[in-house]
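Changelog-adjacent note: as of this version, every example in the card shows the full chain rather than a window. The one below runs 408 residues end to end.
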Amino acid sequence: MTRRRVPRWSEIRPYLRTGPIRLSPVERRLASAATIWDLRSVAKRHVPRAVFDYTDGAAETETSLRRSREAFGRVEFVPRVLRDVSKVDLSTTILGRPAAMPLVLAPTGFTRLMHQEGETSVVRVAERMGIPYALSTLGTTSPEDVAAAAPDADLWFQLYIWNDRDAVLALVRRARQAGFRVLVLTVDTPVAGARLRDIHNGFTIPPTLSIRTFADMTLHPGWWFDKLTTEPLRFAVFSETGGTVSDLINRVFDPTITVDDLAWIRDAWKGPIVIKGIQTAEDARLVVDAGVDGIVISNHGGRQLDRAPTPLEQLPSIKAAVGDRVEVYIDGGVLSGADVIAAVAMGARAVLVGRAYLYGLMAGGERGVARAADLMRKEAIRTMQLLGVRRVADLDGSNVRLRDEDRG
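Full-length structure tokens:
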């Protein structure tokens, strides 16, 4: 039989302790996010549906995006024990410059759509973390303003080739003069993919005011207030707007580009050149033979060709095809620091993330981006400690493998 007694105050008091008091609603919701998935849930509640879907969605059936995420779910780490992992070194070098961890904040289009701070908030986080940031051609902040916001950041500029080659060359010169170090040429967008969420939502650039839009204002007044009381949403280097993003791509981008165009791009840009959108070993060898400095294995986050190859699954064969001739990066489906460590162990020099930090941006502006980056950093450290690996440079294929799909 259980004996009862009256507890003493000294025994009750420890249970009455409270956590830190956060007066800011942004701080409260960010503090509750323990993963990027949590930030995604917060973001979904705080922006209009069309904005969230523009970020979260992919092409057609979204099979490419789903497979990319499922591939990381098939990762099986191989830990070693009885190792001193009291201190872990995430640092590496990316194209000759030190980086605090093997992570690049990827180029994303129309970033001020997610939060009015846009690209400047992202580059400031990258600068503080000591990792590269890539500005998109479809960005909503000029190269000059991005460079001014974070003068010590490792700046990359992502380029699409337009029909107007003179305008492309002028933009390349502009980015170089602003202090961008690396040029990232995206080659998987000769035409736009069919992003059905945008079509179903009637999403346009800039957002169109309609009955549906006005209804959404009542659900997200803060987002609309910010948009209507700050600088108008527009592309920073494009004068053409109107219609969907796909309409813009199909009007402006040049579908005739070939590997021969790398020659005049190299003449225009004297720094490192990275080709983004490589999906096969054959194409990897093709661009490496043309003299580029790095490649990103990418299917554009599943936003272009649906049912395209899955980047993580392609990584071993592409790395074997190019060896150490160039640095190999990967993106697609990366939503944790553990994903970053897995990709590096499989041969990537670094990993590019876009959606992960955009969820943070939608959830809480610059503080949300910082939260996303910090979560990934802490997850990466913990994963290495549990793997028994002290340095990123020591990661290799012995630390990870992909389980067969039929093994679950």
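Structural remarks: The domain at 96-376 is CATH 3.20.20.70 (TIM Barrel).
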